[in-house]
Every structure is written in C-alpha cells, then in structure tokens.
Design a protein that fits this description.
181 residues, mainly alpha
C-alpha cells in the first residue's frame, strides 16, 4: 500500500469523521508536541497515518486490522512499535510510563476537548458513521462510551494534553450526554 492508497482509504464512502481531516488534525497536534526525538516523532506519525486505515463501524476489529496492515508496510525496525500504538486506540488505555502511548491516545482523543461547535460537528459525523444503528440503540451505545470517558479521572494520559483539553472535554461530554438522554 503506497501513500496514495493510504490516503485513498481515508476518503472511502461512509467516512464522516475517520477521514483525512482527522489524520491532518492528528498530525497538526503531533507537530505541537515538544520534547520528543525525531525517531519518536516518526513512529507517532506512522501510527497516526495507519491507526484508522481500516474503518468499518460494523466490525469490532478495525484497530487490529489497521495495526497488521501498518506492520506490513512501515519500516521493519519500527513496525512492532507502530502496531503496538495502533492497538492502544481500541481501548485508549495506556500504562503508566508509556510516553508514546500517552501522546498518541491524547492526540486521538483531542477532539473531545475541541471548541463546542467543532465538537458538535464531530458528534454529528460519528452519528453519520453509525447511521446503520437505530436511534435508541445509538443513544444507548454512544452514552455508554461518553460516560466511560467522563468517569475517567484522567481523559488524556499525556499531562500537556490533559492541562489543555480536560475541562472543555468534560463540558462537551456532559453536553452531548444530556442531548442523548
């Protein structure tokens, strides 16, 4: 899979949020991260590019399939670490001391701390990706996901992202949860 094919995967029909704009936003967030080496930046960049390359909202194994594709296509010396990071995006759980994991997950979740209008556009795009799910089931499932994040003591495992986005993320989550009730 070359870079054109990789980019094309993000323009497939039905991708309303998990598309090239999401990848661009993530890469922009990575560009603002300070204190990481060029090698770490490369690993994170590859993980960002590949983390949602496989995206089918009807399947539970997108992250695993994305990780496997990445491991076959990125440089061999970083393939294992890129795959490991991508797999973290399934649960967003990061172990203490996993700095690269904390950065990637915080980048992936940074939309939760966006300005309210941007967050609302994200929430609407997610609904469109799950248009195959009836309203009652969607409200229940989405509420469960949002409550999970809202109940975490720390939403963003990277301290810099937490300081920047936590308060607004909690406000956004509360507002969307209220709208789903």
């Amino acid at each position: 899979m070359n870079s054109d094919e990789l980019a094309a995967a993000y323009t497939a029909a039905g991708r309303h949020y998990h598309n090239l704009a999401h990848i661009e936003d993530c890469l922009e967030a990575l560009a603002r991260v300070e204190g990481i080496s060029a090698a770490e930046r490369e690993i994170l960049s590859e993980a960002i590019w590949w983390h949602d390359v496989v995206y089918d909202p009807t399947r539970p194994d997108n992250e695993e399939r994305s990780a496997q594709l990445a491991e076959r296509h990125v440089r061999a010396d970083i393939a294992h670490e890129v795959g490991r990071l991508i797999r973290l995006t399934k649960t967003h759980d990061v172990e203490a001391g996993d700095r690269l994991g904390a950065i990637l997950i915080s980048i992936d979740l940074s939309i939760l701390g966006a300005e309210p209008a941007r967050y609302d556009a994200y929430a609407a795009a997610i609904r469109q990706e799950f248009i195959h799910v009836g309203d009652a089931d969607y409200r229940a499932g989405r509420s469960k996901v949002l409550r999970h994040f809202a109940e975490l003591p720390v939403i963003f495992p990277d301290p810099g992202f937490a300081a920047t986005y936590d308060r607004r993320a909690r406000d956004n989550l509360a507002r969307e949860l209220a709208s789903l009730a």
